[in-house]
Amino acid sequence: MRSIWKGSLSFGLVNVPVKLYSATEDHDVPLHQVHDKDGGRIRYQRVCEIDGKVVPYEHIDKAYDDGGETVVLTKEDLESLPVERSRDIDIVEFVPTEQIDPIRFEKSYYLSPDSKSIKAYTLLRRTLESEDRTAIVQFSLRQRTRLAALRVVGDVLVMQTLLWDDEVREAAFPELDEHPRISQKELEMSRQLVESFAGDFEPGAYQDEYQVQLKKLIDAKLEQGESIDTEATFGAQADDEGGEVLDLMEALRKSVDAKRTSRSAAKKPAAKKAPTKKAKSA
After folding, report:
1. What residues contact 56, with CB distance under 8 A and at least 6 apart?
2. 72 close to 61: Cβ distance less than 8 angstroms
3. What is the pLDDT of residue 247?
4. Structural domains of the chain sorted by starting position, each given as residue range(s) with its CATH number in brackets
5. pLDDT for 242
6. Residue 148 in contact with residue 137, Cβ under 8 Å?
7. Nearest 5 degrees, angle CA 139-CA 145-CA 151?
8. What are the pLDDT digits (tens) for 116-172?
């Protein structure tokens, strides 16, 4: 794995040098859109809705729409904002682990020690284990201030970014205002059903069946020759200015055909003119 960030964990007067690694990865089979008629790739252009022209990236700004007015934010506007570049992960408090609702978890990262001496790293890890608490931390990543939970998994410190409080919706459903009567017998039967499915969670026992079957389908089509040359799916492409860039092979083919046509025309003998009759003198 390659680290995506380096810094220090600030633990009181103790600084723990650490490296940050993404703890998860996407296993989905990458798919793209094509035309069902000829397999040509579908591409999206950045078209201005006012003049209908394709807009290059260097001429694209960001904007905020409040429903009635739009505020354009230029690159200079965004660069004027204060940017967080701190290389510290600040532990702000230690809270009981059960107080953190999993609904707030966003992305997970591994923290590994970035020093030959791992004593400070081990001290923090063992402290969290013995107290059964989770550290709430603040840090900066990709110019954004983030909130995260720091906890122990095995021998490794794991940091999970948390959603801000206003990013979690309130579960307000009128249907839950009703309180149906549940009999003791129904509750007992439900408990027996749960017990019949009881077991220990083993993540390796589960797999993404859709992705497995998708890979098998793709392999079967390749084996049966149900595929087309990838280069042929691109065809003529549009550049950032909206002009067409002709495929090289197509341009060469047209040039050869045109040359053959001109040679054939040059080899054809010229048509003989019919003799003209001389006018009789009076």
Report:
1. 46, 240, 241
2. yes
3. 52
4. 5-25+82-166 (2.40.290.10)
5. 45
6. yes
7. 40
8. 888 889 988 998 888 888 999 998 877 778 999 999 999 999 999 999 999 999 988
Is 233 strand, coil or helix? helix
Please state, in angstroms and rounded to a whole number, the distance separating the CA atoms of residues 173 and 175. Answer: 5
User: How far is 145 from 83, CA to CA, in rounded Å?
Assistant: 9
Sign of CA dihedral 242, 247, 253, 256: positive
What is the mean pLDDT of the segment spanning 102-111?
Answer: 95
Does the pLDDT of residue 37 top 70, yes or no? yes
* Cβ–Cβ under 8 Å, residues 214 and 29: yes
In order of 1, 131, 234, the CA distances from 230 in angstroms are 31, 57, 7
Per the CB < 8 A criterion, the answer to whether 259 and 251 are in contact is no
What b/e sequence results for 151-190 when a residue is b if at least 16 CB atoms lie within 10 Å of its CB, and e otherwise? bbeeeebbbbbbeeeeeeeeeeeeeeeeeeeeeeeeeeee
Whole-number pLDDT of residue 193: 92
DSSP 80-98: TS------EEEEEEEEEGG
Top pLDDT among 45 and 252 is at 45
Q: Are 3 and 19 in contact (CB under 8 A)?
A: yes
How far is it, in rounded angstroms, from Cα 56 to Cα 100? 45
pLDDT band at 269 (very low <50, low <70, confident <90, very high): low
H helices of 46-87, where?
A: 75-79
Amino acid at 181: R
Task: Please list, in sequence order, all residues whose beta carbon lies within 8 angstroms of the beta carbon of residue 201, skipping any fewer than 6 positions away.
Answer: none
**Whole-angstrom Cα distance, residue 62 to residue 76?**
11
pLDDT at residue 249 in the model? 56
Give the confidence band of 51 by pLDDT, cuts at 50, 70, 90. very high
Amino acid identity of residue 191, one-letter, is R
